[in-house]
């Protein structure tokens, strides 16, 4: 008897996406062999993780050293009252495996820093930036460039969201290409200070999962764009075209990687 390329159960579990034109059996095989690192299991990371896990990603790394708080539950949908006080990475893993016990999940509760980022993230095909602070964005972008991996980056605050894929394809820009000068910490507010509508993080996090799936299944067109979302605008989405990679910032051999103060900062 010919061996099936996927377990028999998977044909039923993932059948609705496998019948899509351009996806098919090969798309599901690609997902089953893929590994994705999600940095941050909060407002963005929870919906991204939920849909990546449901889609059948072969291996998922969840990186978050924070613990669940009651104030998180308004938007961080993988956590619940029973997991308050638990590491977010462990709580998210528990929630995902309740839906699919066969998922292979690495729950990492140590902080990612400039000293360990390359080691921790090198084993994954794609990195998702679901964090909420600027220094980490630069750190993850530099790490993605050094490793030659795509970075699917999301951001959300108040009624606004943003999505961009960095380091994708031969000419994809990195975060430094778009934002070469880091803002002053005094000019950057947090969700705790400015607020966040929970559904906004759901929209952006789901889009991060969608773009990741498109990349892994060959459905992505490698367009260099940034998607801007505002919940109070009509239409709510704007798309901005981005310039191609700037070698000054996107060359892993550039000496700036060694001297940048951003790389000295941790999550």
UniProtKB/TrEMBL annotation:
* Locations listed in the record: Cytoplasm, Cytosol
State what protein this is by name: THIF-type NAD/FAD binding fold domain-containing protein
Tell me a GO biological process for this protein.
Answer: protein urmylation
Source organism, top-level taxon:
Eukaryota
Q: Which SUPFAM superfamilies does the protein's record reference? A: Activating enzymes of the ubiquitin-like proteins
**Molecular function via GO:** ATP binding; nucleotidyltransferase activity; thiosulfate-cyanide sulfurtransferase activity; URM1 activating enzyme activity
Residue ranges of the THIF-type NAD/FAD binding fold domain? 14-246
Q: Which Pfam families match?
A: ThiF
NADP as a keyword of this entry, yes or no, is no
Q: Listed GO cellular component terms?
A: cytosol
Predominant place of localization: cytoplasm
Which InterPro entries is this protein grouped with? ThiF/MoeB/HesA, ThiF_NAD_FAD-bd, Ubiquitin-activating_enz
Keywords associated with the record = ATP-binding, Nucleotide-binding, Nucleotidyltransferase, Transferase, tRNA processing, Ubl conjugation pathway
């Amino acid at each position: 008897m010919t061996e099936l390329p996927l377990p028999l159960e998977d044909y039923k579990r993932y059948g609705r996406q496998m019948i899509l034109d351009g996806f098919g059996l090969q798309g599901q095989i690609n997902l089953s062999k893929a590994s994705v690192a999600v940095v941050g299991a909060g407002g963005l990371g929870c919906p991204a993780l939920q849909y990546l896990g449901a889609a059948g990603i072969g291996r998922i790394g969840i990186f978050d050293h924070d613990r669940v708080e009651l104030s998180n539950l308004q938007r961080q949908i993988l956590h619940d009252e029973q997991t308050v006080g638990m590491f977010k990475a462990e709580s998210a893993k528990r929630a995902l495996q309740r839906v699919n016990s066969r998922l292979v999940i690495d729950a990492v509760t140590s902080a990612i820093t400039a000293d360990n980022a390359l080691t921790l993230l090198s084993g994954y095909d794609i990195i998702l930036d679901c964090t909420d602070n600027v220094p980490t964005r630069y750190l993850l972008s530099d790490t993605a460039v050094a490793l030659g991996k795509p970075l699917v980056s999301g951001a959300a605050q108040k009624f606004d969201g943003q999505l961009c894929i960095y380091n994708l394809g031969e000419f994809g820009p990195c975060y430094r290409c778009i934002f070469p000068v880091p803002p002053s910490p005094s000019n950057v507010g947090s969700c705790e200070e400015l607020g966040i509508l929970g559904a906004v993080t759901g929209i952006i996090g789901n889009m991060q999962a969608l773009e990741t799936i498109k990349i892994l299944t060959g459905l992505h067109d490698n367009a260099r764009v940034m998607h801007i979302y505002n919940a109070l605008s009509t239409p709510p989405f704007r798309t901005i075209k981005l310039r191609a990679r700037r070698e000054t910032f996107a060359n892993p051999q550039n000496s700036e990687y060694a001297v940048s103060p951003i790389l000295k900062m941790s999550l």
